[in-house]
Amino acid sequence: MESPIPNITIKDIRDVTFNYAFLDQPKEGMYGTVYDIQLEFDKSRVNEMAQFGKVRELENGNYAINLTRKPVNSKGQKVVIPVVNGANNPMTKVLGNGSKGNVKVLQYDWVVGDKKGTKSIIGAIQVIELVEYKRENLDFSVVEEKDPVKSIGQVLQSDF
Q1: Residue of 40, 94, 131, 133 with fewest CB within 10 Å of its CB?
Q2: What does residue 116 show for φ and ψ, rounded to 5 degrees?
Q3: Is-contact 131 95, C-beta < 8 A?
Q4: Can you give the pLDDT at residue 150?
Q5: pTM of this prediction?
Q6: What is the DSSP letter of 27?
Q7: Which domains does the chain have, with CATH numbers?
Q8: Residue 82, CA distances (Å) to 56, 103, 143, 158 in order
Q9: In 3D, which of 67, 63, 66, 68 has the Cα closest to residue 46?
C-alpha cells in the first residue's frame, strides 16, 4: 500500500494471534518506553514475517515477532495506536492473549553511521476474535492504612 507519508511503506499482516499487547498504555522496555505487541504464527509463515522483525520460536512450537512503537513521534506529539474491530469501529476493551486479527505495519529505512536497516512499527490493530484481558485476582487482603509497608507487614504477621 502506498503511504501518504514520504519514505514510509504500509504493509498488512493478516491472521495472527496477539499476545502481551501493551497498546492502551506504553510499557518500559529494553529500549525505552514503547507500545508493544507479540504476533504469533505457525512455522509456514516464518519467511514472510522475517521482513518485520526477529522471528523466534515459542515454547508451544509456534513462532513470534514483536512490534513496537514509541509513544511520542518525532514532532513530540503523543501517538495513539488505533485498535478497531472487524467493522473498523474503535474498541475500548483491552486485548487478552489469544486474540486474533490483522496489523497495519509502518516500515521505513534508517541509516546511523555505517549501519542501515528497515524499521517496522505498529500502525494499527484490527481485532477479529477478541479474548478480553481480565486481571488475575491475586486474593490480597484489603489494606486501608496510609502506610502500605506497615499494613502489608501486619497482614503477613497475622498469617504466622
Answers
A1: 133
A2: -150, 160
A3: yes
A4: 46
A5: 0.80
A6: E
A7: 9-158 (2.40.50.140)
A8: 26, 10, 37, 47
A9: 63
